[in-house]
Amino acid sequence: MNTEQLLAEIREANLTYLMLAQNLIRQDKAAAVFRLGINEESAELLASLSSAQVLKLASGNTLLCRFRVDDDMVWSLLTNHGTPKKVGNEATNRLHANILMAGRVSEVL
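The chain above was modelled as a monomer; its predicted structure follows.
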């Protein structure tokens, strides 16, 4: 994949993310704040953007969304990777990972 293709993929991901974020916020702002990991001011700003503003934001060469999973423990829980013996079932591991990530949302708020 060359640089132009990579930049086109970033722009497409940005547009998809912004459109998804707006839909989530308009349907249920509290749930969107939690799921997107953003604060209420950002949610209000995203919801108020016009189509032209969304397109302009999406056209940049920097990815607007980011992974909120930034430690080995959460990655391991989500993927069941790196556990020498099965500690719990997959549902329990996902629940534990969601609890850890939910705690990080309060850091953003």
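The chain has six helices and no strands.
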